[in-house]
Amino acid sequence: MSSSEEARLKTRIRKDLARRGIWYTNIPNGVLGSIPGDPDMIACHDGHMIAIEGKAPRGVKRTQQIDRKALIEACGGHYYFIRNWEQYQIMLEKEGII
Prior knowledge:
This protein is globular. The protein is of the alpha+beta class. The chain contains 3 helices and 4 strands. The protein has helices at residues 3-19, 63-74, 85-94; strands at residues 23-26, 41-45, 48-54, 78-82. It has a 4-stranded mixed beta sheet.
């Protein structure tokens, strides 16, 4: 998956979350206030924080992302590395959204 394919996946996820009425926000990388390793987006469903990091199939998980995942999960949040639409569907099932 090229970076443009990754961008299309993220756009598709955002559109699907909005269609389902699930609150989410993007975390722009490199913007003032963002921290290295922050996920691409955060959603909230039934009181659960869901962090979503879109990745190309061969995209490398950076150390900062792995550390941020551990921190979010230690605080009770859920963190997903999503590489394709099927993984997104699995996340929806795990979160009780579908």
